[in-house]
Design the sequence.
């Protein structure tokens, strides 16, 4: 609820527990950022499945929460100063939940900024570039005969993987201790498997990245969060 009135999105996805954080999402690399974070922090929440179909993400109800028609989005009925807060954009949601819970944003101001820079690296680099790779390698773009779009995004994916692989040398996590930067980054690295693109980018040659994703996926909160909301 916002300002003690039901938010328009609740007409389509009613809240059974309106005192909890309401999560509107789908288990994509961006979507699971929010659910994994909620599981890691143990903040009470209620998930709602919003499919990627236009009928859902372009519905008036969803657009009332996110005019950019992308998952995930949340409503926190107990936001700053006790007032409800609606948020979209996965990176903004991660930052908000980290500050709300006091978890996974480092121990100092310097830690927070180092973590945030790697969050921005994922948001501005890995996510968009890997998404384009998926489009041109697996989805509709794969039908384009001109090889240059595929080559561009394969090469950019390799470059980004090398950045991550180098940063992880001697480290378990991308910015020191486990943080929201890892929750943002690892699901997108793992998406190369879904795209069937591991071989073309030379995945096995990035030993630090391979171990990092395996380490991330073994976390109990990740195991739970990666399947929320349920598609059943």
Sequence:
């Amino acid at each position: 609820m916002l300002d003690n009135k039901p938010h328009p999105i609740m007409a389509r996805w009613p809240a059974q527990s309106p005192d909890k954080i309401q999560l509107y999402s789908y288990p994509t690399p961006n979507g699971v950022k929010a659910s994994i974070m909620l599981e890691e922090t143990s903040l009470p929440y209620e998930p709602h499945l919003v499919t990627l179909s236009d009928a859902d993400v372009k519905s008036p109800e969803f657009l009332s929460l996110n005019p950019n028609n992308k998952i995930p989005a949340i409503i926190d009925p107990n936001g700053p100063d006790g007032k409800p807060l609606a948020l979209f954009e996965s990176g903004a949601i991660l930052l908000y939940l980290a500050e709300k819970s006091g978890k996974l944003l480092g121990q100092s101001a310097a830690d927070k900024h180092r973590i945030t820079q790697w969050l921005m690296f994922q948001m501005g680099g890995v996510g968009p570039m890997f998404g384009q790779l998926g489009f041109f390698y697996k989805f509709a773009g794969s039908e384009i005969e001109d090889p240059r779009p595929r080559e561009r995004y394969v090469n950019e994916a390799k470059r980004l993987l090398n950045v991550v692989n180098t940063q992880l040398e001697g480290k378990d996590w991308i910015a020191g201790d486990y943080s929201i930067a890892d929750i943002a980054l690892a699901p997108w690295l793992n998406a190369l498997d879904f795209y069937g693109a591991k071989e073309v980018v030379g995945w096995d040659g990035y030993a630090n990245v391979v171990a990092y994703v395996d380490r991330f996926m073994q976390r109990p909160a990740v195991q739970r969060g990666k399947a929320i909301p349920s598609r059943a």
Summary: Residues 136 and 149 are 7 Å apart (CA to CA). Strands lie at 21-25, 45-49, 73-76, 85-88. The mean pLDDT is 96. The longest strand covers residues 21-25.
